[in-house]
Write a structure and sequence with these properties.
Elements: H1 2-9, H2 20-26, H3 32-35, H4 40-48, H5 53-60, H6 66-77, H7 80-85, H8 93-100, E1 108-113, E2 116-121, E3 127-135, E4 142-147, H9 149-154, E5 158-160, H10 177-182, H11 188-215, H12 231-255, E6 257-264, E7 268-274, E8 278-280, E9 283-285, E10 288-292, E11 304-310, H13 318-341, H14 344-363, H15 380-386, H16 389-398, E12 400-406, H17 427-442, H18 458-479, E13 487-498, E14 509-518, E15 523-526, H19 528-545, E16 554-557, H20 562-565, H21 568-578, E17 585-587, E18 599-601, E19 612-617, H22 621-637, E20 648-652, E21 658-662, H23 663-674, H24 680-693, H25 705-716, H26 720-733, H27 736-754, H28 759-774, H29 777-783, H30 797-820, H31 828-833, H32 850-864, H33 871-878, H34 880-892, H35 896-908, H36 916-926, H37 930-938, H38 953-960, H39 963-971, H40 987-993, H41 997-1005, H42 1020-1026, H43 1030-1038, H44 1053-1056, H45 1063-1071, H46 1086-1092, H47 1097-1105, H48 1120-1126, H49 1130-1153
Antiparallel strand pairs: 1-2, 3-4, 3-7, 5-6, 6-11, 7-10, 8-9, 12-13, 13-14, 14-15, 16-18, 16-19, 17-19, 20-21
Helix pairs in contact: 2-14, 4-6, 5-11, 5-12, 6-12, 6-13, 11-14, 12-13, 16-17, 16-19, 17-19, 18-19, 18-22, 18-23, 19-22, 22-24, 23-24, 25-26, 26-27, 26-29, 27-28, 27-30, 27-35, 28-30, 32-34, 35-37, 36-37, 36-38, 36-39, 38-39, 38-40, 39-41, 40-41, 40-42, 41-43, 42-43, 43-45, 46-47, 46-48, 47-49, ...
């Protein structure tokens, strides 16, 4: 084209009197006809955009690029021999299709390239989305739906004018960018005008040639001679054949693709979204968002869409192809020869016609996509950072400026998880999440083979990791036996603000994400697209909110709120459960907004000092956001967990460090790590605070079973220092009761060391005692940390008082050992220098019995300084009264440390003197000491242990009717039925025997069996009857005591109660359904016993009134009347006879009515 322009520009410089033949011989005659062979770029461009017969006609009139058209037909439809002939034997079909056809196919596609459109090979990432208005059938309101073209056709929002719908075509989801966005196709009127003009030019050239040959031959001679006779016929035939050949070349090319024409039936928009940083071949494509819409960005029904796909109808149709190629080639040859024989002006006319038509063909499609069509050009770099084009597109679609997650208040544990129904209070947030979820589904459908999925996006990968973590966590917790139902949901809170002028931030709304059990294995499953939507939108909003978000390092709050992160207790449990390598830091509260997220961004100048505990991390924003969502999920699901369970221990870490461990927490951490949601430390930072918030964090103190076993193992190996380090580690990192118990355990370990036979061990034990007497072990630990402690972390007055009391009791114990144990007097100077008191205040009871107090203190000293555990232990055990006084003295004076030491000493003797534990539980219940009871339980002792008589502590308390003691023992797991191995020690029978109504009621309330029997086969009911405890009898009967159970002689309770003094009980038994005619082993009934053995008229009358059968016989055939006569019980004989006559009279009417 540029060459033609160049030669045309030379025309004005040719003088008028120049010889035309000289000029044309050099230019027109030799060069001009050959120009029609070339024009490759223009030809390929026109062919690749031709979609109609009219395009083919325009292409064939005064054609340019004959050689390109021929080669193009061969490349598209030619055989392998033809392709080899033109040097394209090894060319794949995709390369030819991408250059020459307007269609897309399974191997070709189109991408935006900074304002232009580039055809590429393979499956690039680009999505075509149709948005249309529809009416919600439930509410009747208008709503906007989005989907693919296939979705729009299925929803009748778009229609197709073809008889065969393209909904099943795999190419339907591959966008045709050039035909629908890249080229702004002119109205058909201009195409008809171009065809007409082309026809006029072509026929005009032929007409002009006719005039030069036949009308004015004298004026248009060739070398002063008339033109050759062959010239015009060959020119005419050649031009005709060339037109036909070029037309069919274009026709074959145009029919090698099939077009479907779609139009909008409902107001619609079409979007094309292309992610950035795509490497396709040797090109990198940036993010692009283009849209076809109505005026002022409105939806319109005027949208049209052309879908062009590959059609192979001309494959192997060699007759049509060869005919077309032959016509084209022969036509060019004939036209060339004919033009060489005609006047030069005809050649110029043909050249001019070709030039004009080339310009017209180009002008038909010069209006291309505007440079500013990219709706995302301003955020392109930000989107490319994490490939968040879908999130930016969702913001654009819903016109949203801001979207953030907010932390919701805890749902009470009494409110169960509602049925899975996602809901949002804020409508804008609802629509935004729904839109983003649909976008996720549209770009991740595994059944869509037409375009590449977007699964390599960091947000999508993290969302899938989060979804898998949540699913596996649900499977894990269900495997623990927690009933989570068939569906479960957890709530997330959001706030959202539109981008329209005057928009305000909507009040926080809730969105529920559901899980369901699926498949034969009933595994939990959730919609990962929902998680992706929330995670992506939130992350995108965070990135948009600040320029430093991309480069800033992040930190996570230790805890679930600023309040928790500012507490000393948080630092302690961090070092106990979480700390691995990264130390916590204190930062100001203005660096984080705990109402929205639990992580923050580090300022460029670094983290200043403050009062909130945080952990610096190398994680990305999407990872931190995903972890926040996991925390919210875990908070919800933990409402269904009553107790965490698992084994608790302290394990060894790197560089001889110690770590808190729980098997159940380790399982949760494994789920977290296995699905790449973060490191182990990240997992603990998310899990531990939630468990603590839900009161599920395991109790890890020095008295835990695993810790005690580890301590004993170290002691057995002679590693006393390691044992002390283990307990000190727990003391330093514990709080509340766990701290107190751990300190007591450490103190008792010191006592054991002081009583050890090894001098080295004794000295190590005394060194540990001095450390404890010198300073608070936990405060000492905090002072050695590398952080500047806040002022409000100082010891409280209660803690100071507690530590002072503990030090005093420990010091008194140390003094006792120094005075009572031979060889331990070396401790006295050090104890004096530490101002350790040698005596303790406190008395027993009202303080009147000083001797009892002295005996109690002496007994305590004897127990704590005891070295010969077996022999001396038995001697001490015989002094039962002193043991009781010792226990009471410690309890009444709140000497908790000494009480703890005493109980541990008894536990230590448990293997040799088992019934010590029964004594301990009995004393604990008698004095109502929860500390004693809990200490014994945590040491692994059996609350139902028996003494030498086989009695349990509960039996002892029931026997005396001590209600408070009974309740305390039952609340801590005592068996209300006692042991089957000791039937003589049934707590219920003991309470009944003692007549303790409240004790009986409590035992029954806690599940005691009302029909339990003792070693004699006597039930509680019979014992109550024997003692004439009417209230207890009624209570037992109301609680399900059986009335038909028999004694050794076969007597039932009713028979046994047929005495004068048991008359009220007899009536109670009858009232509760006792069988009034029951018989013993001799066949005697209660009525028989009343007239023979008991001779009781009141009982006789009650039995007869209640329907006792006077005709029943015993094993010897005797009735009650017979027995009354034999016993000379005349009053009974009269009553029985009277009763018998009344019974007979009642039968007479019936008998009379039946007589004939």
């Amino acid at each position: 084209m540029l060459s033609i322009l160049f030669f045309i520009s030379l025309f004005p410089f040719v003088k008028a009197d120049d010889d035309w033949d000289d000029f044309t011989n050099n230019l027109a005659t030799d060069l001009a006809p050959l120009i029609t062979l070339f024009g490759e770029r223009l030809t390929k461009q026109f062919l690749s955009e031709s979609i109609s017969i009219l395009d083919n006609v325009i292409f064939a009139l005064s054609p340019l690029g004959v050689l390109t058209a021929v080669v193009s037909v061969i490349r598209i439809c030619g055989s392998s021999s033809l392709r080899a002939f033109v040097g394209r034997a090894q060319e794949g079909p995709a390369e030819a299709e991408s250059e020459l056809l307007p269609c897309v196919s399974e191997s070709t596609a189109e991408l935006f390239n900074d304002g232009g459109i580039t055809r590429v090979f393979g499956r690039p990432k680009i999505v075509e989305i149709v948005a249309w208005q529809d009416v919600n059938h439930k509410t009747g309101e208008k709503e906007t739906k989005i989907g693919t073209l296939k979705d729009a056709l299925e929803e009748k929002a778009w229609s197709c004018n073809n008889k065969v719908l393209p909904t099943e075509l795999p190419e339907l989801d591959i966008p045709n960018l050039s035909l629908n966005k890249g080229i702004k196709r002119r109205d058909q009127f201009w195409f008809h005008c171009a065809a007409i003009l082309g026809g006029v030019l072509q026929t005009g050239t032929i007409t002009y040639a006719t005039l030069t040959v036949f009308v004015y031959p004298q004026h248009f001679k060739k070398d002063d001679k008339a033109v050759a006779s062959y010239a015009f016929p060959l020119y005419l035939i050649g031009t005709t054949l060339l037109f036909l050949g070029m037309f069919f070349c274009a026709f074959i090319m145009e029919r090698s693709s099939k077009e479907f024409y779609l139009k909008a039936e409902k107001p619609s928009k079409i979007y094309w979204l292309q992610p950035g940083n795509q490497d396709v071949g040797d090109q990198v494509f940036n993010a692009f968002l283009a849209v076809n819409e109505g005026p002022e960005s409105s939806m319109t029904k005027k949208l049209r869409y052309t879908k062009s796909i590959r059609d192979r109808r001309f494959d192997r149709k060699y007759l049509e192809i060869y005919s077309t190629l032959t016509s084209t080639v022969l036509g060019f040859i004939f036209q060339f020869i004919g033009l060489r024989g005609l006047h030069a002006s005809v050649i110029l006319a043909q050249l001019g016609s070709t030039f004009i038509m080339s310009i017209i063909r180009t002008c038909l499609r010069t209006e291309r996509m505007a440079p500013d069509e990219n709706k995302m050009k301003d955020d392109r770099d930000l989107m490319g950072h994490k490939q968040q084009e879908l999130d930016a597109f969702a913001f654009y679609l819903e016109n949203v400026e801001y979207f953030n997650m907010v932390l919701l208040p805890d749902r009470p544990a009494t409110i169960p998880s509602p049925r899975f129904v996602p809901h949002v209070d804020a409508p804008l947030a609802r629509q935004l999440i729904r839109t983003r979820t649909q976008l996720a589904n549209l770009t991740s459908n595994p059944n869509q083979s037409s375009s590449a999925t977007w699964d390599d996006m960091p947000i999508r990968r993290m969302a899938h990791n989060l979804a898998q973590t949540i699913e596996s966590t649900m499977d894990l917790i269900s495997g623990w036996g927690v009933d989570l139902g068939k569906t479960f949901e957890f709530r997330l809170g959001f706030e959202c603000r539109g981008a329209s002028p005057g928009s305000v931030t909507q009040s926080p709304g809730t969105y529920s994400i559901g899980l369901m059990r699926c498949g034969d294995a009933l595994r939990w499953k959730m919609e990962a697209s929902e998680i992706e939507a929330i995670l992506g939108l939130w992350t995108w909003s965070l990135y948009k909110s600040g320029d430093d978000c991309k480069s800033s390092r992040l930190f996570r709050l230790v805890g679930l709120s600023e309040e928790e992160a500012s507490k000393k207790e948080t630092y302690l449990y961090f070092h106990k459960w979480i700390f691995r390598q990264t130390e916590a830091r204190l930062v100001p509260s203005d660096l984080i907004d705990d109402s929205r997220r639990l992580f923050g961004f580090e300022p460029k100048e670094g983290l200043p000092l403050g009062n909130l505990l945080v952990i610096k991390t190398e994680n990305e924003v999407e990872t931190m956001a995903a972890q926040d969502i996991f925390i919210q999920f875990l908070k919800e699901v933990c409402l269904n967990v009553k107790e965490l369970g698992g084994e608790v221990d302290v394990v060894s870490g790197i560089q001889n460090s110690l770590l808190g461990s729980c098997t159940r927490i380790d399982e949760l951490v494994s789920c977290f790590e296995a699905h790449s949601l973060g490191s182990r430390e990240d997992a603990l930072l998310c899990i531990v605070p939630v468990l603590r918030n839900r009161n599920l964090l395991p109790d890890l103190a020095a008295d835990c079973a695993k810790v005690r076993a580890r301590r004993e193992q170290l002691i057995s190996q002679g590693k006393w220092k390691n044992a002390f380090d283990l307990l000190r580690w727990l003391c330093e990192r514990s709080e509340g009761p766990q701290f107190q118990r751990s300190v007591y355990e450490l103190g008792y370990l010191c006592l054991r060391a002081l009583l050890n036979n090894s001098e080295t061990v004794r000295k190590e034990g005394f060194a540990q005692v001095c450390k404890l007497l010198n300073s608070d072990i936990r405060e000492e630990f905090l002072q050695t940390q590398k952080i500047l402690l806040p002022s409000d972390w100082s010891m409280s007055q209660d803690r100071i008082e507690w530590w002072r009391s503990f030090s005093s009791e420990l010091g008194w114990t140390a003094w006792s050992i120094s005075e009572e144990v031979p060889g331990m007097s070396f401790m006295e100077p050090a104890l004096k220098s530490l101002n350790v008191p040698q005596s303790l205040p406190g008395v027993i009871g009202t303080g009147q019995d000083l001797q009892a107090t002295e005996d109690a203190m002496r007994s305590m000293q004897d127990w704590l300084t005891l070295r010969d555990l077996v022999n001396a232990g038995f001697r001490r055990l015989r002094e039962e009264e002193d043991n009781r006084l010792c226990f009471e003295w410690a309890v009444e004076n709140n000497y908790h440390c000494l009480l703890y030491f005493l109980l541990l000493k008894w536990v230590e003797l448990n293997d040799r003197i088992p019934f010590l534990i029964t004594i301990a539980y009995t004393l604990a219940a008698t004095k109502h000491s929860h500390l004693a009871t809990q200490t014994l339980l945590r040491q692994g002792t059996n609350i139902d242990a028996t003494d030498v008589q086989g009695h349990t502590a509960l039996f002892n308390q029931a026997a005396v009717g001590h209600v408070e003691g009974i309740v305390m023992l039952l609340d801590n797991g005592a068996d209300p039925n006692g042991s089957n191995e000791a039937p003589n020690a049934r707590p219920l029978i003991a309470a009944v025997y003692g007549g303790h109504l409240m004790a009986v009621a409590l035992l029954l309330q806690y599940g005691a069996d009302a029909n339990m029997t003792d070693q004699h086969g006597m039930s509680a009911l019979l014992w109550a009857m024997a003692s004439d405890y009417i209230d207890i009898v009624e209570l037992l009967l109301s609680s399900g005591a059986e009335t038909e159970s028999v004694m050794s002689d076969g007597s039932t309770a009713l028979i046994w109660a047929s005495t004068d003094k048991s008359l009220p009980i007899l009536e109670l038994l009858i009232k509760h359904g006792a069988d009034i005619n029951a018989q013993d082993t001799d066949g005697k009934t209660a009525l028989m016993r009343a007239v023979s053995r008991e001779r009781s008229l009141p009982v006789l009358r009650v039995l007869l009134d209640k329907g006792a059968d006077v005709h029943m016989e015993d094993d010897k055939g005797r009735t009650a009347l017979d027995m009354a006569r034999k016993a000379n019980f005349h009053e009974a004989v009269a009553i029985l006879k009277s009763s018998d006559r009344n019974s007979l009279a009642s039968w007479l009417p019936d008998l009379t009515s039946r007589s004939p």
